[in-house]
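[step 3/7] fold_predict: job queued, chain A
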Amino acid sequence: MATVVAVIGGATCSSREQTLAEEVGALLAEAGATVVCGGLDGVMAAVCRGAHSRGGFTVGILPGNDRDSANEWVSLPIATGVGQARNMAVVRSSQVVIAIGGAYGTLAEMAFALNSGIPVIGIDTWRLSQNGIGPSPVLEVNNAEEAVNMALQLALERSNR
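[step 4/7] structure written:
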């Protein structure tokens, strides 16, 4: 089975988040992984642009009914018409999730993934703890290369189960 990694983050993002997402997309494409995202702007466009620059394949799971609303670097736009409920499809379509920055939609996607047993790797994103106790369930990394290496390793481990 092909490696599928969801990359989540805000529709608006900082220049650092944009750079990180673009690098993550490029590295995932170089490794032959498929990138799944929400298909719109910000982190989603940057990760698709990075993957596209290396000949990668990207899937954009869109909140609305219009496939043409996808950013120009989405290889396969999927129009759902279900609004933010599409966040569940984004994470459940993947073996691993990489979160970069993000607002409440990203937080919801992280929760969906963790609740589904899908590992979440975070770069400059939400920090989580349950009742302020224990280690974060989000695997925090500092850069795109660490995120992609960890994602590929976790995806391999999950496919070998």
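[step 5/7] annotate
The chain has a mean pLDDT of 96.
The beta strands are 4-9, 34-37, 58-62, 76-79, 96-100, 120-123, 139-140.
exit 0
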